[in-house]
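DUF2157 domain-containing protein (Rhodocytophaga aerolata), 323 aa
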Amino acid sequence: MNETILRTLADEQLISREQVQQIKEYEREHPFSLHWELKTILYLGVILLNTGLGLLIYLNIDTIGHQAVIALIAAVCLACFWYAEKHKAAFSLSRAESPSPYFDYIVLLGCFTFLILEGYLQYQYQVFGQKYGLATFIPMVLFFFVAYYFDHKGILAMAITALASWLGIAVTPLDIFDNNNFASARIIYTGIILGIVLCGASFLLAQQHIKKHFSSIYLNFGANILFISCLAGLMALDHTMLFSALLALATLSAIFYAKKENSFYFLVMAVLYAYWGISYLMFQIEALHSNAIFWYFIVSCAAILIFLAQYKKILKVQSNDSV
């Protein structure tokens, strides 16, 4: 605690000099939590280990040989999953406690090394040929299974990412990727459907109490995919009214959820995505003078700042509540 505050409290006789000394001593000697620092270091360690493995293979491929490299990567992957299987907690539809501080990171390392193994096999031996959808479908299925079996949020995020990649490849002709034309109606509509499905899955899981703590991951991915797809449709496709209505509906839904759950994150998400869409529509008005655009940005930015500054009133939370 700040010494000035302690001195003020002591001068006003709200606390005694002995209490001031006790507070100072406590602040000086109480243990400092390194929880998030250690988690960050462990995540970085997993990433650096995979990066180092990739560099080792790249620099010594002529000496090591492809079969030896594949055997090494597969051994690391299998060892991670063997450890996870041996030490996992009993499966439960609710949250399962991690059996050790390193358990989640070993599972994460196993999934990363599986991706390296699959990518190496495809690059060197073309095991999937031109069936790129299969190359994303297999890790998607594996990651969903691993996420639920070992209760791992990070792997669930990887599984949803793989799902989005698989759908993008499955519904889209390969010439779109060859020509780098991502303004495809199929991709945009698929993104909207996927976003709605993920949001629906979030609420269904929470209602049925099936890994309820996973619902935030589904909702976060679903909402962002839905908003981005609506904006992409607004800018790339000739259906302004349709995508404006979808964007408005998504914005109102996010604000409603933010008020219901006291979520500042979803409030900011709704405001920023809506502002992006409105700003784009403003630029499409040809008769609008450049000075009007300038004042639009000045006034709109000020309005957003004022709006967000009043978030506690909007969300109806007390000043000491965490949002």
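The two ends are 23 Å apart (CA to CA). Confidence is low (pLDDT under 50) at residues 319-323. ok done for today
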